C-alpha cells in the first residue's frame, strides 16, 4: 500500500486487469508502436487484490465516479422508450434497459415508476459516455439481490463509509445484525438502503451508519455499542 497523487504512473499489469476508482488506463505512442499505461486520477492510498488483478485508490469523497462492476443504489428519474434514466449521484444520469433484469422479456419486464429505488451493477462506465446499469449478476445472469428496492430507507454517507461497510471485517453490520434482524444494500455511490421490522430499529440503523462514518462522528465499536444503549436497542 502506498500514497499516490494524480498523474502518478501505476505498475498495474495483469491478463484480466480491472481498474477501480481513481485509476485510468491510457494508450500512448512509443517507438515500438502503442502501449498502455495506468495513471492515478485521484490522491489517496493505492490498493490491489492478492493476485494483483484488481487495482483501486482508496480516497474519501462525496461525489461518485462510476466504475465497472460496482454496485450502486439509484432513483428512477425518467422513462425513455424501453429504458430508464437513473440518478446514481454521478455527473450524468445512468441508463438502465428494461430487459436488464433476471428473466426479463419484451412481454414480461419490470414496470418501474419515477421515484422507484433500484439496486444495480455498473456494466459500462466511461468518462465520455453515460454509464449503463444492469440488475443481475454478470456471471450467473441471476438477480443476486439486484433489482427494485421496496420499503426501507436510504441513508447517504461518504464513499469511504460504503467501502468499509462492504468489508466483511468491518464491525458495524455484524454488530447491528446481532441485535435485531435487518436488510441492507450497500451502493458504492454513497447510498445505503436499510430495512428493519420496527421503525425505531430502522432509525437506529441510519443513525449508527452516520455516527460511524469518517465524515460524521467516526465512532468505533465501543462507542457505537454505548450509542445503541442510549437508543434502547
Question: Summarize this, please?
Answer:
The protein has about 230 residues and is of the alpha+beta class.
What does this structure look like?
This is Ribosomal RNA-processing protein 40. One of its GO terms (molecular function) is RNA binding. Belongs to the RRP40 family. The chain is of the alpha+beta class. It has 3 domains: 57 residues, OB fold (Dihydrolipoamide Acetyltransferase, E2P), CATH 2.40.50; 79 residues, OB fold (Dihydrolipoamide Acetyltransferase, E2P), CATH 2.40.50.140; 79 residues, Ribosomal Protein S8, Chain: A, domain 1. Helices cover 16% and strands 39% of the residues. It is built from 4 helices and 16 strands. It has a 5-stranded mixed barrel with strand order 8-9-10-12-11. Strands 1-6-7-3 form a 4-stranded mixed β-sheet, with no helix packed on it. A 3-stranded antiparallel β-sheet has the order 2-5-4, with no helix packed on it. Helix 3 packs antiparallel against helix 4. The longest helix has 14 residues. The protein is globular. The mean pLDDT is 88.
Keywords:
233 residues; 4 helices; alpha+beta; OB fold (Dihydrolipoamide Acetyltransferase, E2P); 3 domains
What is the count of DSSP helices, taking H or I runs of 4+ residues? 4
**Structural class by secondary-structure content:** alpha+beta
CATH architecture of the largest domain: Beta Barrel
Q: What spatial form do the alpha-carbon principal axes imply? A: globular
Neighbour order of strands in the largest sheet: 8-9-10-12-11
Count all strands and give the number: 16
Overall mean pLDDT stands at 88
In total, the number of domains comes to 3
Strand content: 35-45%
Order of helices and strands: EEEEEEEEEEEEEEHHEEHH
The biggest sheet amounts to: 5 strands, mixed, barrel
**Proportion of helical residues:** 10-25%
The unreliable regions are none
Classified in CATH, the superfamily of the largest domain is Nucleic acid-binding proteins
CATH topology heading of the largest domain? OB fold (Dihydrolipoamide Acetyltransferase, E2P)
What's the CATH C level of the largest domain? Mainly Beta
- Rg: 19 Å
Distance between the termini: 38 Å
